[in-house]
Fold:
Amino acid sequence: MIYQDQPQELLYIYIIRCKDDSYYTGLTNDLVRRFEEHCKGEYPDCYTFKRRPLELAYYETIPFLQDAIDREKQLKGWSRAKKEALMKQDYHKLQLLAQCNNLSHHKYKDLK
Structure:
């Protein structure tokens, strides 16, 4: 998306796999620096502090801040299965996981 009168920069959305096999999703403008901060435990209040060692499992770049914030929020709301499909680049599984399977969904209207 193009936003007029907004500076463009390179932002990173990233997912870290923690020692306890949980995931942390974040946003930064310097991926290498931020990942090193996580690994060194520079912020004791950070989710990853007590879950080291860490592995950078996935990242993507986005050029505009609002788009990056929206994407980070989206990924944080995803299920573990959806995040894992994204990290494995299994887009077919990701699409299946994104589909609504609620029986009240319009795609099941003919079954009633």
